[in-house]
Automatic annotation (TrEMBL):
Signal peptide: none annotated. This is AIG2-like family protein. Keywords: Lyase. It comes from [Ruminococcus] torques ATCC 27756. The keyword Lyase applies. InterPro entries: AIG2-like_dom, G-Glutamylcylcotransferase, GGCT-like, GGCT-like_sf. It comes from the Bacteria. Substrate binds at residues 5-10. Residues 6-113 form the Gamma-glutamylcyclotransferase AIG2-like domain.
């Protein structure tokens, strides 16, 4: 059974996703309204997540994934200990047709108790490549980075 997966971070990187999830294919892009992009994490590093914030938005790509792709994503995302899954309905703009279709999708969200942290440059670079591939405004990533530096810097 195929499902629709919402990517907003390193899994926007098409080359990386082809390796991790060989059967996945991009079906379109969307925007998650009233959520913001944040870098949060653990001792191993800070990674992107999304959290509710009225008036904010996050650009995303939507992938069609197989069960084996989803199992690979579960392992990569540290599900269920590090990230949990949430179902969302999104209006997806088709990659080929440009048509808008509403679909039920799933997204990984980091457990909220994780602290804001500063990401590695290599992780940011991987995410940035995805942003460029999909034509997303890089400002979303920049703002998340600035917030991470400001918040994490004050906690030390």
């Amino acid at each position: 059974m195929k499902r629709y997966y919402i990517a907003y971070g390193s899994n926007l990187n098409i080359r990386q996703m082809r390796i991790r999830c060989p059967h996945a294919r991009v079906i379109g892009t969307a925007v998650i309204h009233d959520y913001e992009l944040l870098f949060k994490g653990s001792r191993t590093g800070a990674y992107l997540t999304i959290e509710p914030k009225e008036g904010s938005e996050v650009p995303v790509a939507v992938w069609e994934v197989t069960e084996s792709d989803e199992a690979a994503l579960d392992r990569y995302e540290g599900y269920p200990a590090f990230y949990y899954k949430k179902e969302m309905e999104l209006d997806i703009r088709g990659i080929r047709t440009g048509k808008i279709r509403r679909r039920k999708c799933f997204v990984y969200i980091m457990h909220e108790e994780r602290k804001i942290g500063v990401p590695s440059l290599s992780y940011v670079s991987t995410c940035l490549q995805g942003y460029i591939s999909f034509g997303f405004d890089e400002q979303y990533l920049s703002e998340a980075q600035i917030k991470a530096v400001e918040v994490a810097g004050h906690e030390e």
